[in-house]
Each structure stands twice: as C-alpha cells, then as structure tokens.
Amino acid sequence: MIFDSHAHYNDSKFNDDRDEVLKNLDNVKYIMNVADSMKSLKKVINIADKYPFIYASVGVHPEETGELTSVDMDTLLEYTKHKKVKAIGEIGLDYYWDSVERDIQKKWFARQIELARKVNLPIIVHDREAHGDTIDILKSENARDVGGILHCFSGSVEMARDVLNLGMYVGIGGTVTFKNARKIKEVAEYVPMDSIVLETDAPYLAPEPFRGKRNSSDLIKYVIEEISRIKGIPKEEVEKITFENAKRVYRIED
Ligand code: NI
Asked: pTM of the entire structure?
C-alpha cells in the first residue's frame, strides 16, 4: 500500500471531480493533505473530516508569508488541536520566486518551527533554491526535536547528508522519474531506504509518463518503480518500507 506523504487535494484543479478521484485511487492507503496558506486551512480540515484515509498538515508556505501576523500563529495553534492534524507545513524558504522578502520568509519559517516544537508535531519543509539558509534555520530552531520531511527534495547529496544528520526524512516524488534529473537520482541512491518517504505534490509534478498532466496519489507507483531500479531492490520492498517511514514520521499508529 502507498502512503502519499504530500498532496494538495484542496487545490482548485480538483474542484470538478475531487470525490471521484479520491474514491478511485488504486492501492493508496493514506494521504497527507498539506495546507499552504491561511485560506487553505479550513479546506484541508474539511477534506480530512470527510475522508477517513486523509490526514491534514497546517502551515503557511513561504510565498504566502508576506501578510502574516502573530494572530495567524494563534489561529494555526488552534487548528493543531484537530485530531487529524499530524504535521506543521508546508513551511520553509523559496528563493526561486522570491515573491516575499527573504528576511520575512525566514522569520515565519522560524516561528512555525517554534510552533511545531510547542505542539510536538513534525514539520514539512519547502526549500527552493534556499538550501543553505534552510539547513541553517532547521539547525538553529532545533528542528531535530520534532523531525519531519524535506519535501520534494531538490538539493545535493551533501545537503541530503545534512538532512539525515538532523534526523529528518527526504521526500521524493515525480521529479526522480524525469530523464535529465541526475541530482535527485543520485540523492535517491545515497539516502538509506529508511529515510525516504514518497509523495506526489498533487496536482503538480506528475511522474513520467504523465509529466505535465494532473498528478494523483496512485501515480506514486512510477516513483516506486524508479527507486526500485536505482536501489536495485524489489518494488514491493520500496513500497512497504516507505509506507512504514511515512507512518513513523507522522506518528500514525494503526
Ligand atoms: Ni506542496
């Protein structure tokens, strides 16, 4: 069975057929549906309430931090009391779009790690072209205490080593199947199986042969195939180990 450790089924790209997509997923046992803005919080909670196999993560993506206030942190704290909220995220730094001043992104990244430590939930980290600062803040804010996932990992093997040293997991999705994605294939080879979790980032980043189309959790089977090839181990083993890893990081019991 598959555990999709990172998806966005609240996205408007699922507005026409969300129910149908979620009911027809093949071989998917659990999904972590991840918030990205204050506006998305209610949506991820509603979806988690409706579908027994979907959990929720609450947090604000770096590109959405421009207008954040301390009151929003209190609101986030309230949301963490919901029984299906199992993580804080996605939070982090995005220097690719650079749509919010870097100091502001850093401030709210740190504040949300602080919140995660307060409520003892793991974090889901977004890092785009901000590898050095991301690791620095994870270290200085003691992210090790709560653990979590570097989602849609795009760094080098050296950065993966830093992530492992923090006791965190490396999230791998559709990009590992792309033909010219040399770096993430190297990372997949380097990171031990017990530190890898699989993800879609649906509706984005569909794997080959569906690159560019809308993604959904069952397409993780193509990610499993590629990791099986890279590691030289059976697909069943990749599926089983990564499933257990996601349960462990999100502390899901059954
Ligand atoms: Ni995401």
From this structure: 0.97
